[in-house]
Write a structure and sequence with these properties.
alpha+beta; 528 residues; binds zinc ion; 22% strand; 8 strands
Length: 528
C-alpha cells in the first residue's frame, strides 16, 4: 500500500515538474550520501549548500562533542546495500521525499588524543537510516546540473562563509530551488511525517509562511546546540538561539556540574524524529509559542572528569518550547536554512557574537525567529499540560457569565482600576491580575495600563447582582490557584467584595476554596 502511495505522489510530482525522474533523484541522493559518509570518515563537514541548517548543525555539534570527549565514532568500509524511496508527501509548504539507505560498515572509535577513548575492535554491522529531502512546490528539476552548482543560476557554487551564491545571492539550501537534505533519522523508530497538532490555520493567518518543515529544522538545529551546551557546560552555545531565562537556566546547570566536579557524557546520539506538537499564541506574554518533540536515543550519563562512564543506550523524548515575539513573520526566502542574519541573510559564523559579522546588524534573539525557552522530558511536559487543563477546568464554571473575551477584558480592567484606586499596587496584586488574565485568555498588556491610570473606567457591573457574585468567585478561584490565598490577595478580594456590595467571604471560606483547589491539583498529579 505504501509503495502505491509513493507511486501516486511521484505521478503528481511529475505533473508539476515534467523533468523529475525518481531513478535520477535516487542516484543523486546516493551520491550525496556517499560524499557525506566519506567526509565524516575524514572529519570533513557536509556540503553546506545541499543540506539544511539542522543537518549541518548536527555535524558541527558532533564534531565539538567528539573533541570534548576525545573520541571519534566513525563508520569505515561502507558498502551500500539498498537505496529506496519509502515515502513521498506534500503539503502546501513543501514536497518531501523519504529515502531509506541500508549499508554495512565497521563502526570504529578513534582516540583523538585525550585518554577517554577505549579501543573497541571494529565490528561489521548493518545500519538503516531514512534521509528526508524537501523542496518548495513549484521548483523544477534542472537536468544535467553537475553536483556543486548553484541550483538557481547554475554557476559553480562558491558560497564561502555566508553560504550565499556569489553570482546570484541565492540561498542554495533553503529548499527554494532544489531538494535539500533536511533530516537524518534512524529507521528503527521511523514513523513518517507526524502531523498531530492544531492551530496551524490560525498561525498562518498571522504568519502565512509558518510551516512544520521549517519549525522542525529550526528545532533540530537548536536541539544540537542545546546538546552541545550541556556537554561542554557552556551556555554561550545557546546565546543566539535562546531566551535570557533559558540561558540563565543553562548557566545555573553548568555551574552546578562544575561545583560537583562532574560532566555530562552525551554520546552516540541518533535523532529518531522531530515533530511539531503544539502551536500557540500566548496572549498574556504576547508571543508565539511552538513545542516540538525530539525523539532521540543515545548514551547519556554524568561522570567525574577523567573517567569515561559506561552507560547503555537509552531512549529519550525531549520537548523543546520555542518562542518569538508576536508579529514576527517567517522569512520565506531562508526556508530550511534559518541560521542566518535576519538582515543580510549571511549564514552565521561559529563565534557567539551578538551581532552579524557581515553587516553588523544586532541579532536580537526572539525578535526575528523562534528561540529556545524550555526543554523538558515528554512525560513532564504532558503532565504539566494536563495539570494546567484541569486547573483551568476548575475556574471554568464561573466563566460562562463572561463568555466574551471583551467582557472579561473589561472586568479585569475594572479590577485593575479598583486596585489602583485604593492605593499603590504591589507585586502580588499585579501577579494575581496577570494570572486572571492568563486564565481568562485576555492579554495582560491590555490590563496593565489600568494599574497606572487615575481615572478608572465606568463601573457598570451591577452591585449585588448574580453577575457580580460570579465575577468575584472567579477572582477567588484564580487567587487560590497556587493552593493558598495570602493576605495581599485576601485584601484585594475584600476590597472587590465591598465595591460590589457582596458579603465579604470569611477567612475560613477562602481557606476552604484554597484547599479545594489544592485537592484538585493533587488528584491531577496522582492521575498523571
Ligand atoms: Zn547562483
Ligand atoms: Zn547581516
Amino acid at each position: 500500500a505504501s509503495a502505491k502511495l509513493v507511486d501516486q505522489e511521484i505521478a503528481r510530482l511529475r505533473k508539476e515538474d515534467r523533468d523529475f525522474d525518481l531513478a535520477a533523484f535516487e542516484q543523486r541522493a546516493q551520491a550525496l550520501f556517499a560524499r557525506i559518509m566519506d567526509g565524516r570518515e575524514k572529519g570533513e563537514l557536509p556540503p553546506r549548500h545541499e543540506v539544511s541548517d539542522g543537518v549541518y548543525r548536527r555535524e558541527l555539534a558532533m564534531r565539538e562533542i567528539e573533541r570534548e570527549h576525545g573520541v571519534r565514532l566513525v563508520h569505515t568500509a561502507i558498502h551500500p546495500l539498498e537505496v529506496r524511496t519509502i515515502g513521498a508527501f506534500h503539503d502546501r509548504f513543501f514536497d518531501s521525499l523519504h529515502v531509506r539507505f541500508s549499508f554495512s560498515s565497521r563502526v570504529t572509535e578513534l582516540s583523538t588524543g585525550k585518554n577517554l577513548a577505549t579501543t573497541r575492535s571494529p565490528e561489521e554491522q548493518v545500519t538503516t537510516v531514512v534521509w528526508v529531502f524537501v523542496r518548495r512546490p513549484g521548483a523544477k528539476t534542472k537536468k544535467g546540473l553537475p553536483a556543486g552548482s548553484c541550483p538557481n543560476c547554475g554557476a559553480p557554487f562558491s558560497g564561502g562563509a555566508t553560504n550565499l551564491c556569489s553570482h546570484c545571492q541565492a540561498i542554495g539550501n533553503s529548499g527554494q530551488y532544489d531538494w535539500v537534505l533536511a533530516q537524518e533519522l534512524s529507521f528503527d523508530a521511523y514513523r513518517g511525517p507526524w502531523r498531530e497538532f492544531t492551530g496551524l490555520e490560525q498561525m498562518n493567518e498571522r504568519d502565512p509562511g509558518f510551516c512544520p518543515e521549517v519549525s522542525e529544522d529550526r528545532a533540530a538545529l537548536i536541539f544540537w546546540k542545546w546538546i552541545l551546551a550541556r556537554t561542554r557546560r557552556d551556555p554561550d552555545q545557546l546565546r543566539r538561539v535562546a531566551t535570557p531565562s533559558m540561558l540563565q537556566e543553562t548557566a545555573a546547570e553548568a555551574e552546578a556540574y562544575r561545583g560537583r566536579g562532574e560532566r555530562r557524557w552525551i554520546w552516540d546520539v541518533q535523532v529518531e524524529g522531530v515533530d511539531l506538537v503544539l502551536i500557540d499564541h500566548d496572549t498574556d506574554e504576547d508571543k508565539d509559542e511552538v513545542c516540538l518533540r525530539v525523539r532521540w536515543r543515545g548514551r547519556v550519563g554524568d561522570f567525574s572528569e577523567g573517567s569515561r562512564p559506561v552507560v547503555p543506550v537509552s531512549s529519550q523524548s525531549t520537548v523543546l518550547t520555542l518562542v518569538r515575539e508576536s508579529g514576527v513573520k517567517t522569512d520565506m526566502r531562508t526556508g530550511v536554512s534559518s541560521d542566518r542574519c535576519h538582515k543580510c541573510k549571511a549564514a552565521h559564523g561559529e563565534a557567539d557574537t551578538v551581532k552579524c559579522s557581515y553587516c553588523g546588524a544586532p541579532l536580537e534573539p526572539g525578535k526575528h525567529d523562534f528561540v529556545l525557552d524550555g526543554a523538558h522530558g515528554w512525560e513532564t511536559w504532558m503532565s504539566v499540560r494536563r495539570q494546567r487543563a484541569e486547573v483551568a477546568k476548575t475556574v471554568e464554571p464561573y466563566l460562562p457569565s463572561f463568555k466574551f473575551a471583551d467582557e472579561r477584558l473589561r472586568l479585569l480592567q475594572m479590577m485593575a482600576a479598583m486596585a489602583r484606586a485604593d492605593g499603590r499596587v504591589d507585586s502580588s496584586e499585579r501577579a494575581l491580575l496577570k494570572l486572571c488574565a492568563k486564565r481568562w485568555g485576555v492579554g495582560f498588556r491590555d490590563v496593565a495600563p489600568m494599574l497606572d491610570c487615575h481615572q478608572p473606567p465606568e463601573f457598570d457591573l451591577e452591585p449585588g447582582s448574580w453577575l457580580a457574585r460570579s465575577f468575584l468567585e472567579a477572582v477567588i478561584t484564580a487567587a487560590a490557584i497556587d493552593g493558598q490565598i495570602d493576605s495581599k490577595e485576601r485584601a484585594l478580594i475584600l476590597r472587590l467584595a465591598r465595591r460590589l456590595r457582596i458579603a465579604a467571604p470569611s477567612r475560613e471560606a477562602l481557606a476552604a476554596r484554597a484547599e479545594q483547589v489544592k485537592a484538585t491539583r493533587r488528584q491531577v498529579e496522582l492521575d498523571s
